[in-house]
Specification:
Blueprint: E1 3-7, E2 10-14, H1 19-32, E3 35-38, H2 49-61, E4 70-76, H3 83-91, E5 95-100, H4 120-129, E6 133-135, H5 149-164, E7 170-172, H6 178-186, E8 191-195, H7 197-201, H8 225-235, E9 242-244, H9 253-256, H10 271-281, H11 288-300, E10 308-317, E11 322-324, E12 327-329, E13 337-342
Parallel strand pairs: 2-3, 3-4, 4-5, 5-6, 6-7, 7-8, 8-9
Antiparallel strand pairs: 1-10, 10-13, 11-12
Bound molecules: N-carbamoyl-L-aspartate (NCD) and zinc ion.
Zinc ion binds next to loops.
Amino acid sequence: MESITFRRPVDLHVHFRDGAILDAVVPFTARQFARAIVMPNLSPPVTTAAMAQAYRQRILAAVPDGLDFTPMMTCYLTDQTDVADLLAGYRDGIFAAAKLYPAHATTNAQFGVTSIAALDPVFVAMADAGMPLLTHGELVRHDVDIFDREQCFLDEVLAPLLERHPTLRLVLEHITTSEGAAFATRYGSRVAATITPQHLLYNRNALFEGGLRPHLYCLPILKRQHHQSALRAAATSGLPNFFLGTDTAPHMRELKEAACGCAGVFSAPVAVQAYLSVFDQEAALDKFEAFAALNGPAFYGFAPAERQVTYVRQLHAVEPSLSVENDEIVPLFGGGSVDWTLRQQV
Ligand code: NCD
Ligand code: ZN
């Protein structure tokens, strides 16, 4: 196949940050995607409908003229979440979902939830309203190995949570293990999962190839090869439980290449191309549209994009970095190339 045409895709998991970084990164997502689900882990986090509405305006102001792009906002759950504001925000179309960060699990998760069971009244209200819960699925405890955090979270936290709330709808964000993929299908249509390009492309060896690779460090961390294979099988399965969520997470180079580096891979400039090469390698390009443009909208309950895009098989150089203020952000494949190019839209 020398070209592929599909409905404009949707990125169900992005980090846009704020200020100068937001202005620099939003155009990359807006060029390739019709919509995106925007993560709320700013500092301070987006915890109210009013904050989400203001953040949405700042994102829209960074979308280049002529591009049709819809950001969809999420609420950062905390120990103090105001259920009335959360539900009003959902009913008014400001919030598409709420995000659960266990305290200290990842970037800006210091504001996260310390006791998940204590949030049960919030989950009851969300289940009644049909509002999806998005989870950063890692159990962070000193006796749990970093490579086992996802599986422990599924067993110890999420399975009981789903039992306590039999109608709650859930997205496991950025799954990284075979157990995560199996979990997403076990509950039928009420549980789904996003999968990032880096977890499809790499396993944990890539973190240490020839030396330490800070630009591939993200959370949840890359896992063993058999997990990578399970994720590739899940993404290309055509099952409605799996959809595209890049987890594009820009950090300044200075903060990535540091004694204590930040977690996150900035994939927005090459996201669609990265997924396409995986589906191509798996001989599953016929399943790409479902993963990238249909399954996510179906789960969230909005219409897929009407317009289509075409990518052609054509080598395309990737900029080594993106200048932002006095620093830069290094993208996935920075200084390398991708096999697919977005055909100029007329
Ligand atoms: C994300 C970030 O930097 O905001 N980092 C990451 O490694 N994925 C947070 C997250 O999604 O865990
Ligand atoms: Zn994320």
